[in-house]
Amino acid sequence: MKDLVFIEGLKTQAVIGVYDWEKKILQDLVFDLEMEHDNRIPAATDDLSKTLDYEAISNHIMAFCAERQFELIETLAEHLVSELMGVFKLNAVTLTLRKPGAISAAQSVGVKIHRKSAVTY
After folding, report:
1. Where do the domains of the chain lie?
2. Is 89 a catalytic site residue?
3. Residues with Cβ within 8 Å of residue 64, at least 6 apart in sequence
4. pTM for the whole structure
5. In CA terms, which of 14, 39, 58, 72 is 20 to 30 Å from 21?
6. Which whole-number Å values give the CA distances from 11 to 4, 29, 94, in the listed order?
7. What digits encode the pLDDT tens for the residues 15-34?
8. Which residues, at least 6 apart from 55, have a Cβ–Cβ distance to it below 8 Å?
């Protein structure tokens, strides 16, 4: 299976950074996700409960970022992917996390990680 469900450009804010001033403010984050999911059953049934709910996943990401603080975007990305895989029973996820404005001369900095589950759903 190699069907992909994606969310692009999900914007939220979080307290994130290593510097003291960063730990006192909300900073912009932008997420792109690609999630492996067998889309044959939802396509055949037209049933939302058989597919990945983009809104539920997006809301989960925004709540996750609002409720936690991290110093590194690498740490945030790892913890978030682990949680998403468990909560939404994902076989594999590619997550790109951007932190715009972190470097004034760059549009954005970030990380891109890909993780596969040990369990197949």
Report:
1. 4-116
2. no
3. 79, 80, 83
4. 0.92
5. 58
6. 20, 6, 17
7. 999 999 999 999 999 999 99
8. none
